[in-house]
Structures are given as C-alpha cells and as structure tokens.
Design brief:
8-stranded mixed beta sheet; UDP N-Acetylglucosamine Acyltransferase, domain 1; binds coenzyme A; alpha/beta
C-alpha cells in the first residue's frame, strides 16, 4: 500500500513538472521579465525580476533578488539572494545534517520518526534537522562548481572562486577561494568598501543605474 501511494506521488510529481510546470514557467518568465531555460524549476521561490535560471537549475524555498542569475545545474534550497548577484554553473547549497555526538547511530532511522529513507526504528524525533537559511548578498559573484554549506552568510560584493567549498561566513567585498574557502584579498580599499556598503547602489532603480552607467566603470569616479 505504501509502495503504491509512493508511486502515485512520484507519477503526479513527474506529470506536474513535465506537463504543467512548463506553462507555469512561461507565466513566471512573463510576469517577472525573467528567463528560465528548459528543465529549470522553482518551488516556493520568489523571482524579483530580470532573473535568469540556466538549464536544469532548481530553486526550492528561495528568494532571488532583482537582476540576479543562477546558471546551469544550480541546486539551491532555503536561500535568500540579493540583487545583481552572479552565480555560475553547478553551484549547490548543501543542506541536511546528522548527529555527530551523543547519538550512537547517525542514520535518520535512529533519530527521526518520519520514514525519510523508507523505514524508522523510533517513534520520537530526537534530532533537530532544521537549519538557518543561507544568505547571499548583493553584487556577489560565485564561480562554477561551488558548494555552499547551508546556513552561511556571504556578504555584499564578495567573490567565491571556482570549485570552492564555503563552510563559514564570507566578508563583504572579499575574494575567497579553496576548500575550505579562505580569503585571498579584498576587491577594494577599506574606505571604498564602507562607502559602497552605505551607498547600496543595488537599491537604485534601473533608470538611474542606466543613466549613470559610465560611473560604474571606475570605483573612484563612482564614489566621487
Ligand atoms: C578567485 C578568482 C576570481 C581569482 O581571484 P584573484 O584575486 O584574481 O586571485 P589570483 O588569481 O591572484 O590568485 C590568488 C591565489 O588564490 C589561488 N586561487 C585562485 N582561484 C582559486 C580557486 N578557484 N581555488 C583555489 N585557489 C584559487 C591562486 O592559485 C593564488 O594562490 P597563491 O597565492 O598561492 O599563488 C578566480 O580564480 C576564480 O575562481 N574565478 C571564477 C571563474 C569561474 O568560475 N567562472 C565561471 C562563472 S562566471
């Protein structure tokens, strides 16, 4: 009986994603002036406008700020992303945790009453799997093949190099890379960074940005 109800759920989910979601995707593209390539899928997610989701990118329970994109094969869950943020291909948030101490066995069958992986030995949930949301700021650049451990905060203007694993919070306007990601340097001088963080240009409307675009070509000109 359980197998049958699982199969029915599975089939309805496949039918929804293959047959109905493409129409929903078209509606979302039109209403938010966004581009969502084939195979991209969103659930419980807000697209703020002028967003781009690459092929097979999946966002679950996310907020995507204006102008931000997630390129092909992105897989983000419970994540808030600011404006004008650039996320490369194969970037994922890593969510889920298992007990590391006290509990004898780490498998969910010993700690969670829901039969997540098909069975459970306990009728009590003795391990809290909830996690804080991941936060990625405005004007952030995340390179290809990055893993972001769920719950970290990546500051405005920060960079994460290709192939990195982000395990800790990342400072605004810092450039970070490696496994685990470590700071290499900052993008700008300290005073320039604090001016940018106060100025929050990403909150300007499109017309203002467009008419001032030449000032964006040079940080000194911009902060004059
Ligand atoms: C991080 C990055 C932006 C370069 O930043 P940078 O400040 O110019 O860094 P540098 O090239 O001067 O390298 C500084 C150091 O960091 C190391 N480094 C740079 N990128 C790295 C990475 N992705 N992983 C690990 N180490 C890296 C360099 O080897 C160098 O090490 P060293 O000091 O021991 O010699 C770039 O390497 C990168 O990863 N870009 C992402 C590209 C990408 O994914 N593009 C597709 C999506 S748009």
């Amino acid at each position: 009986m359980r197998l049958l109800s699982r199969k029915i759920k599975e089939i309805s989910s496949i039918l929804y994603r293959r047959l109905l979601f493409p129409f929903k995707r078209l509606g979302l593209e039109m209403s938010s002036k966004s581009i969502m390539l084939p195979g991209s899928y969103v659930k419980g997610t807000h697209l703020s406008g002028r967003n781009y989701l690459g092929k097979n990118t999946v966002l679950r329970n996310c907020f995507l700020g204006f102008g931000s994109y997630v390129n092909n094969n992105g897989d983000l869950t419970d994540t808030d992303i600011g404006k004008y943020t650039s996320i490369g291909t194969n970037v994922s948030t890593v969510i889920g945790k298992h007990p590391l101490s006290r509990q004898v066995a780490m498998h969910p069958a010993f700690t969670i009453s829901d039969e997540i992986f098909g069975f459970s030995y306990t009728d009590r949930t003795v391990f809290d799997v909830s996690q804080e949301r991941t936060v990625i700021g405005n004007d952030v650049w995340i390179g290809n093949n990055v893993l972001i451990i769920g719950g970290v905060k990546i500051g405005d203007g920060a960079v994460v190099g290709a192939g990195s694993v982000v395990t800790k919070d990342i400072e605004p306007y810092s450039i970070n890379a490696g496994v685990p990601a470590k700071k290499i340097r900052y993008r700008f001088e300290e005073e320039q960074i604090s001016s940018l963080l106060k100025r929050k240009w990403w909150d300007d409307d499109e017309a203002l940005i467009r008419s001032n675009i030449s000032r964006f070509y040079d940080i000194e000109e911009f902060l004059k």
